[in-house]
Fold this protein.
Amino acid sequence: MVNNKRTVVVLGAKNFFDLPGTEQIKNDVNWSFATTVDDLRRVLPSSEILLGWDFRAEQLQGAWDYARELKWIHWCGAGVDAALFKELRQSNVTLTNARGVFDRAMAEYVLGLVIALTKFFPQTFAAMANREWVYRRTEMIENRQVLIVGVGSIGRRIARLLKSVGMRVSGVGRSERPVDEDFDYIHATENLTRVLGNFDFVVNVVPLTETTKNLFSQPQFSAMQSSARFINIGRGASVDETALFNALQNGEITAAALDVFVTEPLPSDSPLWSVDNLIISPHISGDYIGFEKALIDLFADNLRRYLAGAPLRNVVDKEAGFVTD
């Protein structure tokens, strides 16, 4: 009997035990799994679809010459920088991502960091660990000005949540927009440095592209208020970590919180670990209990669309590096 099912190769998983929720689509296609370049070279020639389960995985470029039948890649991350190498950009292969899965979790994480930084939770926890009773007054967040750099679905979810607690929220996008449903005002990226000094909080959520690498460096930190707090949950390489370290040490900004880094895990000898006014977390802002099932549900919906010849959700503009609709 001829098997006419399409073949899906899963990059970054060993078997179905790594993919909760695949029961709904397990029999709709043929499956293979790859965790190394050699694995991928072995199974990729007969695969029409690739599911990038590990969004950090970089093996695909090393096996790209074997992608003879590949037509669609679904990447299980909001950021797709690990997959956007030159050959894929120039190909006819469709790329989709996990936009929407992590938005609420990341918005809640940012709100938590804003509260932690203004209510001085790190200092309170440090005093508690030392059994010290240290009285302090805390700051209010109502009417504080926030600039969210990156106005995609994550940035918009953050904006809505911060506005719901009384904060004033503007954004930075590719073009200036005086009127927007989620932001008080959207500034153009080219004006980023000029407007930074107007804000109490700066939240970076941009994807990593050629234009966003080191988007925040010494000129940007120098342009901020000395009382400003900087939060990065986008991509580590969009921030010059040495410049941020210096800005924190020199008092150019009051505090920062980083969930993403140029090198992950952050090396134990990184000077960032020694900075008192910096919150470090291990790239967890979007990860919540059950998010793996949500990723599979999105892929399952797109797979049904693909098999039916219907438009796919979350198609990435491969030149821009993100979903643009």
